[in-house]
């Protein structure tokens, strides 16, 4: 007699065992191939990659390399050599991580139009949420986007960024809250995110927006989400989409977004209402972008009624200039509607969070370093005085203000990992350390190997920065405000590159460096100048806490789509005019 239940159970066991064996063998083969791809460079052998699911959402620990591994292990990750490999044995790409500037330069220099190293297609997928764009393209496509977008970032734009930033400051301090002698902000991000979005809304897209009336997704509907609110929700989703597993990423895009939105809300134990909010945010932001393009097209085609002055925001915002370039039939490079929308989304995403976080970080560091803050205040008074407002012409003279901002970006670089993939077998050349003459090496890499430029690692590499764990803006004093030595915005393509040698000031801009760099620094220098002249920034202390306790624990990093600083409770105390 046969026992059919027993046969069924044993068949199921055999099947499970076979599946398990196939899985184990496939992982072993993958692992061995991974080691060959990175030429057996020593490093970490975790189950998952730090930049892929599920490693990315798990904290860094003895067994997991999480998204913040390069911060958590910053003191020993590159102790032996300035590059390590990360070869996961279960899931995720095979990578070399580096804190070496020469490697960074080779990777980023070749990341533009041609070159062996390109952005990996799967890392660009989530950035294509609304359409093809500059950051999510390689090769000829990238070149086209950059040719159209480049000219929009010009001196006239920076002039209007400066003026608008100043107007917003005046607008803010005229509100009841800022008429007091002490204003508490918990967290200070509430100020910097609002500022960054208003400036981007007006100078990026020509939208009206004041401190008390930030831009909404639908002008005529007071219940519509603010652009900022909708963007916040969508940006969180994009972060998750970026790190989703390969098979999820290959779903049709709308399904992917929906899935990730639901997952993110469920994972955070949020209600059904929040899931609907997420969908509403996605829909409202989407129609907002389409409307903006349509509006800009009609205003570009009928110039009547548009302010024609060179300083006007209506004329000199990024979107209008992009639409103008794309509507110009004689132009060699044009963007279609999908590409325009893709780039609007990109600018919202890339230009908003990065600047806001860097400004919040700067305020945090200055609260923790009162002597540096006083030096900055004195510098501002020396350059601008008390009787007039600073003008864009003062931008270059306000070098210490710029240094304070750039030093905050050094600590917490918004773009904390820059990922590129070799599209053929290649060799990375590391020249000898100019100081010691040691370390000349060549690293062979196989096609498919990814190189991750670890910006936290570079910015805290003692070979490039003395006492890297100290917030010390003076290391940048006298480096001109437009110098390519500011690595937080990516790298030059050629030339000698060594931050330690601060005599080198004119390096060519890297082909893939940040297009919004000056937009961000002009806004930051203007805002910091206005605030620090009139206000002293201090920590809001917990009961029994001293300022030095506070400074010991702040600011801390916060990893999401970009790297920022954790919540900072600060107060702004009005200064008397000495
Ligand atoms: C403190 C503020 C900012 C920081 C630290 C920052 C940093 C960076 C970095 C490191 C990259 C290179 C990314 C990579 O190669 O993978 C980048 C690219 C980019 N940034 Fe920024 N950024 C900032 C502000 C802005 C602003 C204000 C805008 C727009 C208004 C902007 C728009 C872009 C765009 C469009 C790219 C892609 C460029 C390309 O691929 O050619 N960024 N940024």
Automatic annotation (TrEMBL):
Family stated for the protein in its record: Belongs to the cytochrome P450 family.
Species, as recorded: Marasmius tenuissimus
PANTHER family in UniProt: BIFUNCTIONAL ALBAFLAVENONE MONOOXYGENASE_TERPENE SYNTHASE, CYTOCHROME P450 FAMILY 4
Lineage: Eukaryota, Fungi, Dikarya, Basidiomycota, Agaricomycotina
UniProt-recorded name of the protein: Cytochrome P450
SUPFAM superfamilies: Cytochrome P450 (SSF48264)
Keywords: Heme, Iron, Metal-binding, Monooxygenase, Oxidoreductase
A Pfam family per the record: p450
This protein's record includes keyword Transit peptide: no
Keyword hit for Iron-sulfur: no
Record InterPro entries: Cyt_P450, Cyt_P450_E_grp-I, Cyt_P450_sf, Cytochrome_P450_Monoox
């Amino acid at each position: 007699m046969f026992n059919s239940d027993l046969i069924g159970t044993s068949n199921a066991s055999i099947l499970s065992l076979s599946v398990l064996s196939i899985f184990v063998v496939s992982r072993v083969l993958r692992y061995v191939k991974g080691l060959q791809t990175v030429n057996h460079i020593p490093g970490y052998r975790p189950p998952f990659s730090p930049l892929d699911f599920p490693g990315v959402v798990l904290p860094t620990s003895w067994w997991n390399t999480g998204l913040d591994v390069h911060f958590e292990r910053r003191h020993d990750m590159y102790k032996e050599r300035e590059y390590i490999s990360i070869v996961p044995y279960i899931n995720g790409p095979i990578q070399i991580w580096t804190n070496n500037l020469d490697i960074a330069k080779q990777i980023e220099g070749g990341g533009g139009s041609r070159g062996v190293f390109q952005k990996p297609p799967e890392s660009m997928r989530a950035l294509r949420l609304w359409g093809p764009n500059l950051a999510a393209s390689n090769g000829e496509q990238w070149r086209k986007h950059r040719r159209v977008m480049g000219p929009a970032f010009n001196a006239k734009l920076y002039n209007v960024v400066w003026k608008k930033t100043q107007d917003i400051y005046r607008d803010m301090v005229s509100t009841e809250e800022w008429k007091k002698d002490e204003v508490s902000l918990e967290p200070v991000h509430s100020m910097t995110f609002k500022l960054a979005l208003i400036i981007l809304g007006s100078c990026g897209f020509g939208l009206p927006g004041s401190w008390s009336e930030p831009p909404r997704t639908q002008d005529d509907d007071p219940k519509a989400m603010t652009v900022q609110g909708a963007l916040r929700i969508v940006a969180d989703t994009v972060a998750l989409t970026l790190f989703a597993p390969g098979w999820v990423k290959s779903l049709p895009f709308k399904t992917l977004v929906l899935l990730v939105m639901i997952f993110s809300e469920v994972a955070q134990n949020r209600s059904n209402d929040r899931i609907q909010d997420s969908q509403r945010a996605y829909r409202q932001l989407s129609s907002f972008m389409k409307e903006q393009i349509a509006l800009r097209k009609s205003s570009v085609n009928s110039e009547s009624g548009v302010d024609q002055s060179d300083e006007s925001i209506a004329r000199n915002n990024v979107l209008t200039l992009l639409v103008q370039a794309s509507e110009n039939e004689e132009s060699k490079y044009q963007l279609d509607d999908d590409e325009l929308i893709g780039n609007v989304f990109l600018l919202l995403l890339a230009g908003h969070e990065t600047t806001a976080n860097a400004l919040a970080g700067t305020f945090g560091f200055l609260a923790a370093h009162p002597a540096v803050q006083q030096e900055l205040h004195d510098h501002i008074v020396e350059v601008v005085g008390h009787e007039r407002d600073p003008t864009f012409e003062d931008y270059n003279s306000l070098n210490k203000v710029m240094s304070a901002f750039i030093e905050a970006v050094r600590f917490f670089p918004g773009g904390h990992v820059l990922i590129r993939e070799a599209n053929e077998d290649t060799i990375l050349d590391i020249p000898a350390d100019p100081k010691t003459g040691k370390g000349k090496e060549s690293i062979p890499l196989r096609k498919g190997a990814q190189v991750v430029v670890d910006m936290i690692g570079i910015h805290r590499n003692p070979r490039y920065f003395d006492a890297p764990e100290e917030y010390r803006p003076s290391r940048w004093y006298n480096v001109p405000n437009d110098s390519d030595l500011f690595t937080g915005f990516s790298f030059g393509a050629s030339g000698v590159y060594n931050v330690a040698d601060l005599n080198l000031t004119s390096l060519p801009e890297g082909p893939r460096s940040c297009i919004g760099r000056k937009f961000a620094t002009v806004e930051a220098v203007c805002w910091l100048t206005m605030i620090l002249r009139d206000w002293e920034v201090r920590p809001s202390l917990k009961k029994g806490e001293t300022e030095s306790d506070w400074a010991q624990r702040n600011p801390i990093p916060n990893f999401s789509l970009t790297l920022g600083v954790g919540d900072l409770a600060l107060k702004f105390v009005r200064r008397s005019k000495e």
